[in-house]
Structures are given as C-alpha cells and as structure tokens.
Amino acid sequence: MIKIAKSPVKKKSSRAQSFLFEIAWEVCNQVGGIYTVIRSKVPSVVEKRGNDNYCLIGPYFADQAAASFDEITEDKSLVGKAVKQLRELGIEVHYGKWLISGRPTVVLFNPFSVFNKLDSIRHELNANHGIEAPNEDLANQVIAFGYQVQEFFRVITELDKSKKKMVAHFHEWMAGSAIPEMRRQNHKPKIVFTTHATMLGRYLAMNDEEFYDHLPFYDWGKEAERFNIKGIVQIERAAAHGAHIFSTVSGVTARECEYLVGRIPEAILPNGLNIQRFEALHEVQTLHQKYKTKIHDFVMGHFFQSYSFDLDNTVYLFTAGRYEYHNKGYNVTLEALARLNHKMQEANIDKTVVAFFITRQPFYSFNPEVLRSKAEIDEIRKICDEIKEKVSEKLYLEITSNNGKYEFPDLSGLVEDYFKLKLRRNVQSWKSDHLPPVVTHNMQDDANDDILSFIRKANLVNNRHDKVKVVYHPDFVAASNPLFKMDYSQFVRGCHLGVFPSYYEPWGYTPLECLASGIPSITSDLSGFGDYIVNNFKKRDMGVAINQRNQKSFDESAEDLANQLFNFMKLNRRERIELRNNCESASVHFDWHNLIKHYEKAYREVVKL
Hints:
CATH class of the largest domain: Alpha Beta
Shape: elongated
Low-confidence stretches: 1-16
Radius of gyration: 29 Å
CATH superfamily of the largest domain: Glycogen Phosphorylase B
Largest sheet: 9 strands, mixed
Number of helices: 23
Strand content: 5-15%
Structural class: alpha/beta
CATH architecture of the largest domain: 3-Layer(aba) Sandwich
C-alpha cells in the first residue's frame, strides 16, 4: 500500500504581523524614568517582533546622540524611503541604530530645524485642535518635534501601499503633540497613547495633602491655569482623546486620568525591567557584602572622627529619587525615622541605623570637612597597610632566624618610630569634637531645604546617643563620586533596605530596582508598583512591604512605617539573608519577558479598530 505524504503544515510566524513605531522624548535622550522604561523594554520587543517590525522615534540632541546613536545610510525600507523624502522637504532627520541591547532602528528629528515654522505650527494647533501651546523653550521643542513626527507618518501613509497593519505607540505629552493632527489627517497607524503621570496630577499632589479625596471635584481648566500649565495639559488631553487606545501604567494613575484627563484608560501597561542586567545568579550575598564594605569605608570616614559604633550591627537604609518632598514621601520617611530612633532607644536595641537620602538639590560644592575626613581616613588606611607589610616581613625573619627557638616577638618593637609618629599625627589630625555633618554638600539654600528643616526641628542631627543617623547627599551617586566611589546600582546592593513611601508615584522604579538587586524595600499602596503588588500577589514574603497611605492620615502612615522599620531592625542576619534571596526570586515576575504581554495585547486590540 502506497502511503501519500502529507504536506507539511506551515507554522504561523512568532513574529508580530503589525509594524510597531514607538515614540518618546526619551529615545536616545536620557531625561528621567521613561528613559528606563523604553531602554529596558527594547530587548524584549526586538525578540518578540524582530528589527524588521520595530522602529523607535525621538528627538535629536547631538550631545546625547554622540554616545548612543550610530547613523546609517538610507536603505530601501519603508522607513528609509520616508527619511529620504523628509530630508528633501528640509527636515533634519537622523536614521540609524540605538547602541543598546537589541540594536533597534531609530529615527531622530532635530526640532530646532523647523523653528522657522513655529508660528505656523502653533496657529494650526490652536485653529484645528484648540491647543494654546505656550511660547517657552521646552514647549517649542515639543510642538516642533510633534510636527516632524506627524509629517513622518503623513509620508509613511503616502508611501505604504501594503495591507500591513501599523501601530504608533506614543509616551507622554512631549511625544503626543503629533496625535491630534495625525487623527485629523487620518494617517495609517493605529495610535496607542500612554500617560505615565498626568501633568496636572503631579502639580496638584505636590500642593494638596488631600489630593486623592479631592480628585473627583477638580476643575481641570481652572487648575491648569492656576499652575500656568494650561497649554501642556491641553496637549496631554488632546493626545489622550485622539488615541485609538488610551493607556497608563497603574490602577492608581488610571483613576487620576478619569478625572483630570477626562477619559478612562482602556489598558494598564505596567513597567518592568530587563532583569538580566541585574541578575547576579548566586552572588547576591557576595555582592551585598562587597559593596556594603565600601559603604563602611564612607561611614567610618564620616562618623568615626567624632565617635564610633559597631559596623557589624549597623543597618543601612536609603531613599532616592526626584526631590519632591511630599510626593516622594520624604516627609513620612523622616517622621518615621525620628520615631524609630525613639523606639530603638526605649527597647535598647543594640543596632545603629544609617539612613541615606539620595536626591538632587542645588549645591555649590562638596562640604570641605566631609571631603577632608574621607581623605584623611583613606590616608590612615594607607599607613596601616604600609605598617602591615613592614611588620609582616620583619615578623617572618624574626621567627625563622631565631636559632630553633620559638618566642613570639614584641610586635610594637617591629614598627619603626617613623610609622608610629606618622600614624599618630594622622589620627590626631582626623579626630574631631564636632558632630558628624548631616549633609555632604554646601547647599545653595540650606535654610529653606525641607529635609534639613525637619532634621533640625526633630534634633535628628547625628548625636552620639542617636540610634538613627542621617546622611543627606543632594546629588545622585556615581562611580566618580569621591565619597562612595561606586555607581548607584552598586550602592543599592550594599544597603539593607530601600524606603519609598510615596504619596504620588504613578509607577515607581526605585523599589523595583531594589527587588531586582536582591534588596528588600518598602513602597506605598499609592504608588503604581505598590498597587500592582497588592492586587496581583497574595504572598507577601517576596521582600516588598507596603506602607499604608491610602485613606490614612499622615500620622497613621508615619507610625505604620516606623513600625515596619522597627520590625526590620529586629531581624537577625540569617533572616535578612533569607529576605534578600526572596527578593531575587520574586524579581522575575517583573521582567519584560513577562510584562510585555500587556503591551502586545493592546497592540492586537488597536489594529482591530
């Protein structure tokens, strides 16, 4: 019997069939948190779609592009043809590869190249869409970029005669100014617009301690005028209402959008990380120990000139982010630390807490006394190392050449008087009767800084008897920093706990970065990340604690945080190690390989519209 061979069944390609354009002000332009979102997501998008189905669009700034962008000559692809045609129209456009993992294709527009058209662009926005774009530097760049982007999609629409579906995903108002005109001219791509945080919401939250209670009752127009951001808010609202699908990053921000933007988001697109960049396999504990030792070096130089404490019983806490005293929860953190100081003294807990505030505020320079102390303790270490080498050699010769007798020599006799005197002089020069400074820099407005004002009122000024010490570092940590000599990610790994009880935080990357680094953290139920944890994870032993801020008074939230910190202080070393291991295990849930599904679902839905 003859068997008839069956024709092989063609498998559907795993590549997405639609072409995705992703537009953001932060493409090849490191500004803030959205840069992390875009850059970390790229490898997963490229893996899912391939470079042939994906292109990013952003502004061209030469200083930023120089280090991260590799220009290529035009090719015969649709994007390449569009770039060529735009150049012929006099628009400065750069086409190439973003030098990050995945090497995605990017198109960058120089907004300044069409500044001669600003009056016309501003007039069209007002006449066609009722947008009163402000005549300010950033706003001018934004609307010029928006004009270039919509011209790009106009050319793409004219050139593309295929039936291939297209999606244009815009991030934030700075990219979204192109959307209203794209819809008016009916350009081909279906549009997804994501607001990561509403402009009006950020302003209101900073100025209203009952922001969430008042949310349903704000008049967006009056409030936008009050803060002088009406034109920006109009762009944001037009982008949100012009998109085929409107999205945001968390349930917390979705409620904000409902009232301040006037449209309920159809999709929630949570932010993730490329966990591979943080993954340390089984080295979490080793790396923690390595970078904790570097923090020890700073702490010894900073504090031990005045008094010392047991570093083996010292816990390092930190909070970090943009300087928004109320929104980032710095006020609650400080109040909780003051209460923790009292609780630890009353309970006679034999531990010391050093709490670092890492943020950016205007300053003149490093505090010379802080730099001097660090330099002098480094010199003391060098002298000790020299003595160690000299004594080691002399001790070896003394013992081995003692005619068979063994007598342990007097070590002090092996140290030359020169080194004894040098060490004594350096130690005496380093020692101080003053309290260790709270702030590491000379601030431009020391008297009106909210963090320093609280510290002074609460007398949390690094007294010898304080269980909680504070170091306020008004600049971000970098490897070039002479105090820490490591980058931010290394500093995070060296700490024991991150503290981020935000009042207004649409997502919140800092606790997620802690989780990926194997470091436990505290976030709030008003942050997007905290809200996601509360609604998607029943088990709470993953290393992320939730500070109760929703429907709670300031006093209740501060007491809740103080108790959470106090309970952490009672953990022994083995329990802290277990918590760090839990963090590393849980971080995989927030890898883009898992969270990209929410984005792909939105893209599948939008092409059906």
